[in-house]
Amino acid sequence: MKTRGILVAAAILAAATFLVACGGPSGPVATQPAGSVLVTANLNLFAPTSVSAPADQAFTIWFENQENVPHNVRVADAAGATVGEAGPIFNGPAAQPLDVPALAAGTYTLLCDVHPDMRADLVAAN
After folding, report:
1. In terms of pTM, does the model score above 0.85?
2. Torsion of CA 55, 58, 64, 65, to 10 degrees
3. Residues 6+ apart with CB under 8 A from 99
4. For the chain, which residues make up each domain, given as ranges?
5. CB-based contacts of 37: which residues, under 8 Å, 6+ apart?
6. Cα within 13 Å of Cα(94), Cβ side
7. What homologous superfamily is domain 34-125 in, according to CATH?
8. What is the pLDDT of residue 30?
């Protein structure tokens, strides 16, 4: 009887190891911090297509990649220059915060470095 229990435990351990090694179900996406701006990537699109943030104060974008495709998010000004740092490129489902420095009031563009057609507006307003 003890042998059967050991075999069952070994089988469960082997299955769990296989799932982890083969990219099986991942853990839940981390929770969005309070006060952050939510941006998601799914079907090679950002959603929503326009988000708002406070002007003249730093804030965080909570970026959720909802698909198993590499994405990132970065903020660009009207001239196309990156504001702050670009977020890391990662596969989902997963989420990462992106700290954005204070922006003057205006409209900025959210971009994905992997998929140049992925765009959304970021409006900084008082």
Report:
1. no
2. 90
3. 58, 59, 60, 84, 85
4. 34-125
5. 51, 52, 53, 59, 60, 61, 62, 122
6. 15
7. Cupredoxins -  blue copper proteins (2.60.40.420)
8. 76
